[in-house]
């Protein structure tokens, strides 16, 4: 009997260490960044069983067998469509500014598409104006409406959008709605999904969250895009979820969310539609055929006040780390000014180094973040980066007019990046995201005006006072910094 228990104990111990060794080897062979790998290994060694479960659930970029297969197939067909689009040279702007040229070259090589010209562009700075414009455009829709959002929360003006969408569907407009399961959990608990489906809208819950799927797919990969497409001609994207700020997260104590959205008319909407069709097929297995004929009716060109726009789509199935590489490219391209607004500042080591290097080169670098954040983890982790940024001369502004949720970058007043990407590892390496790039000084001046309005409502972080902050705060910052590769 003693021999049996001894053997059993040794087998359990051997199995335990074999499991840890196996997961350790798995972490190392994935060739992740050193901070990322070290963070996971320390978690696994400090909390072995919980750490192993966490790593198998969250540690690897795994979309699931079926979705991964669809994603690979979709990118091949999308690449063919984009190559065919190249034959319509009148849609492309062959001239880019010196600041934009490296980024446009990168994206053309990796995504197969350059900047598309002939677009009308407008920045919307309030949720009211965005939602009312969306309702008006839905009411005028003739053929198709596609939407994808991370969060749709009923209430206020969001309900007006839902009613307009149902009315459009009843009059024969084909409406598709793709909502992230985790972000829109409250929406799927209401009667709205059934009401919409009864009205003829295709409502799909993207990347369903379930304990049964936890080992079949990484649960924290999320559909984070925010896009509205109407008749392959009008498009919206930016930082705003489909919510009315008066009804959204009022209990969090951070004030109303402040967002930035872009409304575009022109051929870039069709390119964004190709991205949407990929997302739809990954989730449903159903293909949305692209426009069969690319002509001036399908892709209307405007000669006056037109903008050249590049779309960067990132996430599973799209070129690996494309948005991370794009951000590094524009930061290293900056010569005079660099202004960044982001709600979550937890950059990779490479991005942090690029930002600091830009400041050391003499670039006037400003970063605007919310003073109060809805995420305690991110709030403390982001502050761990402040010291290094301040030491390099970066100006950090803490916005006090609510939760600044705008995600924008302006380089030398010429190159504007607006979209859904946060400066954190989740947006950079995991989620489905979308970013617009506009190479135009007029748009740059408008974005600069908006960013300066944010700065006027912000408090500049004093480098000397920051260096004298309480020691216990530094400990908490470093503790959460440890988890920054996982945030």
Biggest β-sheet description: 15 strands, mixed
Mean pLDDT level: 85
Strand order of the largest sheet: 4-3-2-5-6-8-1-9-18-16-15-10-12-13-19
Radius of gyration: 23 Å
The residue fraction in helices comes out at 40-55%
Poorly predicted ranges (pLDDT <50, ≥5 residues)? 293-298
Strand content: 15-25%
Which structural class do you get from the secondary structure elements? alpha/beta
Please write the CATH class name of the largest domain: Alpha Beta
| Shape by Cα distribution | globular
CATH topology of the largest domain: Endonuclease, Chain A
How would you name the CATH homologous superfamily of the largest domain?
Endonuclease Chain A
CATH architecture of the largest domain: 2-Layer Sandwich
Please, how many domains? 3
- Number of extended strands: 19
The separation of the N and C termini measures 49 Å
Helices, by number, come to: 17
């Amino acid at each position: 009997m003693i021999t049996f228990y001894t053997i059993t104990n040794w087998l359990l111990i051997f199995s335990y260490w074999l499991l840890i060794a196996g997961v350790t080897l798995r972490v190392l062979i994935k060739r992740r960044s050193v901070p990322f790998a070290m963070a996971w290994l320390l978690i696994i060694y400090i909390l072995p069983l919980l750490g192993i479960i966490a790593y198998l659930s969250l540690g690897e970029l795994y979309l699931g067998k079926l979705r991964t297969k669809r994603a690979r197939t979709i990118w091949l067909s999308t690449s063919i469509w984009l190559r065919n689009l190249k034959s319509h040279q009148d849609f492309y702007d062959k001239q880019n500014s010196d600041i934009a040229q490296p980024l446009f070259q990168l994206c053309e090589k990796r995504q197969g598409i350059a900047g598309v010209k002939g677009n009308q562009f407008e920045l919307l700075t309030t949720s009211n104006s965005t939602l009312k414009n969306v309702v008006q455009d839905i009411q005028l829709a003739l053929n198709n409406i596609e939407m994808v959002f991370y969060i749709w929360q009923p209430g206020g003006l969001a309900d007006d959008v839902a009613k307009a969408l149902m009315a459009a569907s009843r009059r024969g407009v084909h409406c598709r709605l793709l909502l992230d399961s985790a972000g829109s959990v409250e929406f799927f608990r209401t009667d709205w999904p059934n009401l919409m489906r009864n009205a003829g809208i295709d409502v799909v819950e993207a990347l369903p969250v379930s304990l049964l799927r936890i080992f079949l797919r990484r649960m924290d990969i999320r559909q984070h895009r925010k896009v509205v497409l109407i008749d392959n001609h009008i498009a919206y994207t930016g930082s705003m979820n489909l919510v009315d700020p008066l009804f959204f997260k009022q209990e969090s104590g951070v004030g109303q969310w402040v967002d930035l959205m872009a409304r575009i008319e022109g051929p870039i909407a069709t390119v964004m539609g190709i991205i949407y069709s990929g997302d739809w097929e990954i989730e449903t297995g159903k293909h949305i055929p692209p426009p069969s004929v690319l002509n001036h009716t399908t892709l209307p060109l405007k000669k006056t006040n037109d903008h050249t726009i590049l779309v960067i789509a990132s996430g599973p199935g799209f070129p690996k780390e494309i948005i991370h590489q794009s951000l590094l490219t524009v930061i290293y391209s900056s010569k005079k000014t660099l202004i960044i607004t982001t709600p979550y500042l937890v950059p990779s080591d490479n991005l942090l180094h690029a930002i600091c290097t830009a400041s050391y080169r003499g670039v006037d670098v400003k970063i605007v973040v919310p003073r109060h954040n809805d995420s305690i983890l991110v709030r403390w982790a982001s502050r761990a980066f402040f010291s290094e940024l301040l030491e390099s001369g970066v100006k950090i502004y803490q916005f006090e007019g609510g939760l600044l949720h705008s995600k924008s970058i302006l380089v030398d007043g010429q190159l504007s990046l607006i979209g859904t990407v946060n400066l954190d590892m989740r947006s950079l390496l995991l989620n489905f995201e979308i970013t617009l790039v506009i190479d135009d000084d007029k748009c740059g001046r408008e974005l600069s005006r908006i960013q300066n309005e944010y700065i006027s409502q912000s408090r500049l972080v004093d480098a000397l006072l920051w260096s004298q902050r309480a020691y216990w705060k530094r400990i908490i910052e470093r503790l959460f910094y440890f988890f920054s590769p996982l945030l």
